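go over this chain:
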Amino acid sequence: MNLLHNFFFNVYPYICLSVFLMGSLARFDRDQYTWKSDSSQLLRKGQLRWGSNLFHLGILFLFFGHSVGLLTPHWVYEPFITPAHKQLVAVVAGGVAGAVCFVGLTLLLHRRIFDPRIRLTSHRTDLLILVVLWCQLVLGLVTLPFSLGHSDGTVMLALSEWAQRIVTFRPDANGLIPLDWPYKVHLVLGMTIFLLFPFSRLVHVWSGFGTLAYVLRPYQVVRSRRIGLPHGSRSTR
């Protein structure tokens, strides 16, 4: 058990991050025409609209919430909020966002599985990644009662300490040993999503973040160029 614990929480994160970064780069370099999210909006548009909007709204909140919550050092927020209060805020906000995301993803998964036309046009990886995301959301919601049972904030501190040590290349997973099993499975499955990322339609997320660079780019100056025409002639379009 100690060997498995050490592998999954000290070694496996770097395997997943390496495949995530290098695989995304290789996918963009070799298969740019597959760098997209296949659309099926002509079929059952109403369910797609509700499912997609709810899913993306919830998943974006969860992604940035997890990133800020796990990677922000304790000393940054300590003057303003205690670990116990921070954990309570994370449970409430994460619970609401997780429920919204769960409803949206369930609609999308139901649409993919039970509509014969959409199922025939769906890749197996599309269904796989939706199922993995759905299981990850369920596990995340399962951890909420466990977090309420540890209202002193120790769980939040242990998870943050582990995540910050991973990104600073000082892995130490000893603090995760006392945690309940839903947290550990949730972490492993979350890292596995990064491992599957380059091989699925999730790569289109990079394009979404790429639009931020487009919005912030400087204006392009375009000047008109007048071309002299012979006397009596006129320009045509």
In short: Residues 83-114 form the longest helix (32 residues). The domain at 2-20+44-202 is CATH 1.20.950.20 (Fumarate Reductase Cytochrome B subunit). DSSP finds nine helices and no strands in the chain.
